[in-house]
Amino acid sequence: MAGYRSVVVLTGAGISAESGLRTFRASDGLWEDHRIEDVATPEGFARNPALVQDFYNQRRRQLASVEPNAAHRALADFERRFDGQFLLVTQNVDDLHERAGSENLLHMHGELRQARCVVTGEIAPQKGDILPESRCRCCGVAGNLRPHIVWFNEMPLYMDTIYDALADCDLFVAIGTSGNVYPAAGFVLEAKQNGAKTILLNLDEVDNASLFDQQIIGPASLKVSEFFGHL
Ligand code: OAD
Predict the structure, then answer these.
(1) Segment 147-164, tens digit of pLDDT
(2) Is the CB of 94 under 6 A from ligand 1?
(3) Which of 84, 79, 73, 77 is nearest to 2 (CA)?
(4) DSSP 125-157
(5) What is the mean pLDDT of residues 175-204?
(6) Predicted confidence (pLDDT) per residue in 54-105, tens digit
(7) What gap in Å lies between CA 27 and CA 121, rounded to an integer?
(8) Active-site residue 34, yes or no?
């Protein structure tokens, strides 16, 4: 097991690309078709809730037709075998890590399959579309539900737990993420300052690549399986 005691893995949209989900910043990515301000900010939701619900309803529906790939499965296998501390932090709002069997998993940008009441903050499972007439369990009022997604200008989830794990880990691996969105893009520095080895597995070179000790370039399905298979 290469002597590691505590491993933190950060994943981004690239790990789900080979399952058929679009990334954000590719030329065919989600942000090519949509303005971030329209579909991924609280202000956009206030302006046009129907547009925002439709964007996330479509993405939630798509989960029914995709499956975890070899990279998701390799991380779940590693977690089962590893006898140290393991935390998987994902920026992804799909459910492919949990369907592959990952357990110690934090969705720092929220989850498509959950909805949140805008009044009480109560979170509940959401399998189907959120419609104008959908009612939350807590208030029973139509129109109070929003996707449980962290939008720009909102605070990502579980930050205390994540920073504690980064302070303690001796290996940090980022997979399939472009290093454009903070605070996730800064996790590598946090881990490094605390003495961890830092590795990036990505299809191509990214903006914060120079911050990592080592880069492994290639598709996640291959590189994640190889890397964690040999760890
Ligand atoms: P991006 O779309 O910014 O980056 C995806 C990265 O994955 C790119 O660097 C690709 O080269 C790489 N990639 C693509 N296919 C791959 C493959 N098969 N194997 C390995 N790598 C591959 O997505 P994220 O970095 O996840 O936030 O984006 C971060 C956040 O920005 C998202 O969580 C989302 C977005 O705005 C919110 O919506 C709050």
Answers:
(1) 999 999 999 999 999 999
(2) no
(3) 84
(4) E--S---TT-B-TTT--BT-EEEEEPPTTSPPS
(5) 96
(6) 999 999 999 999 999 999 999 999 999 999 999 999 999 999 999 999 999 9
(7) 35
(8) no
Amino acid at 181: V
Contact 17, 176 (CB under 8 A): yes
- Would you state the structure tokens that stand for residue 182, as one six-digit string? 């903070």
C-beta neighbour count of 60 within 10 angstroms: 24
Q: What is the 2 CA–ligand 1 centroid distance (Å)?
A: 28
pTM of the model: 0.97
CA 146 – CA 175 distance, rounded (Å): 29
Atom of ligand 1 nearest to the CA of 219: 19
Residue 38 has pLDDT above 90, yes or no: yes
pLDDT higher than 90, residue 175 = yes
Residues 6 or more apart whose CB falls under 8 angstroms from that of 187 comprise 8, 10, 89, 162, 166, 172, 174
Task: Look at residue 17 in the predicted model and tell me its pLDDT.
Answer: 98
Could you give the CA distance from residue 97 to residue 158 in angstroms, rounded to a whole number? 17
Q: Tell me: cis bond preceding 219? Omega within 30 of 0 counts.
A: no
Instruction: Indicate which residue of 72, 107, 109, 148 is catalytic.
Output: 109
CB-based contacts of 199, cutoff 8 Å, min separation 6: 171, 172, 173, 174, 212, 213, 214, 215, 216, 227
Contact 44, 37 (CB under 8 A): yes
What size, in residues, is the chain?
231
- Residue 178 CB less than 6 A away from ligand 1: yes
Which is it for the CA torsion 141, 50, 20, 219, positive or negative?
Answer: negative
